Amino acid sequence: MSRSSRRRKHAVSQLNLMVVGFSSLGKTSFIRMLYDTLCRLKEDIEPPTSLSKRAETAQDAEATRTKELYSFTLDIEEEGEKISLTLVDCPGFVRDNELRLDVQVTEVLRYIEAQFDQTLAEETKVKRNPKAQDSQIHACLYFIDNTNNGLTDKDIRILKRITARVNVIPVVAKADLLTTTQLANLKKAINRDIKQHKIPVFDFPVDEEDGSESETAAEVLADIQTQIPFSIIAPEDAELIDPSTSEKILGRQYSWGVIDCLNPKHCDFVVLRNVLLSSHRKLFKDITLELYYEQYRTERLMARKASKMITKEQKKKLMEDLQEI
Ligand SMILES: Nc1nc2c(ncn2[C@@H]2O[C@H](COP(=O)(O)OP(=O)(O)OP(=O)(O)O)[C@@H](O)[C@H]2O)c(=O)[nH]1
Ligand SMILES: [Mg+2]
User: Fold this and answer.
1) Structural domain count of the chain
2) Segment 55-100, tens digit of pLDDT
3) Do 318 and 242 contact (CB within 8 A), yes or no?
4) Which residue range or ranges hold the Septin-type G domain (predicted)?
């Protein structure tokens, strides 16, 4: 094995994911499910305390609400590659206070930009740290309320702001509350609104190269495109047994049957997990660095340049005006 391939084998790739959306849509439950499917079997990993607070009843809902942004990191392995996965959970957006909502979105953007600032600071150092952490947010899941018929004006406003800084993947949570037709109609309506309002959510590229191998890959990608927004169903707290296989599952039990959250026929969680951790991971990272970070960096440098161009007199007047406030 060559030295470079040995280095690659041991290299740890960083991936940072964020969840945002209005409150109570199932963001923390999704993070918990991702954590459970990745680490449940590893006894040495303690779940973050925020994930152990579960809402069994309506009275608990307030206690389990995410009150401030938090993150935690897991060391996982996907297809033989080591990944340091950081998950960032945000407080849900408020529905009834426009001003507060704008502040909340600004807070999310500030967090994303603060990660870009870290890269910028590292880049401008004379002696750079080759082991510097990549804390940039590579993808952000935007949770859409499935009780609306598509995107609301608020969704559109929020999406327009966050898609300027990060790869955004729209998702519909609590898909168990919809019938197959309702879910298909909702997905159609959301895609229509995204197109109509020209919201640049992450666009899954379709490989158009010839050749049988790439045709299959293109088919898979075309299939992914039709699944957007991905539907998610988070499991109940209790361990469930699938009556047909007698095996333990992550699911939800109803009087009419059991949902297996990892069954692709029931929801898109497994496809989404694969897209995030495996098939599109590198693309998310490349786009973050080459598009979103570059854009931010250019804006910052231009702003710095503009502030340097202010004359001494202008600066003095500005300081005097500020003192008067
Ligand atoms: N039916 C159903 N309920 C769900 C699902 N996912 C989460 N829930 C329930 O929805 C409620 C809110 O879930 P959370 O995961 O705390 O939602 P959140 O978006 O993190 O909420 P905030 O932190 O307040 O923004 C809880 O009672 C969950 O049990 C789902 O897939 N289906
Ligand atoms: Mg939460």
Assistant:
1) 1
2) 555 556 677 899 999 999 999 998 889 999 999 999 999 999 999 9
3) no
4) 11-303
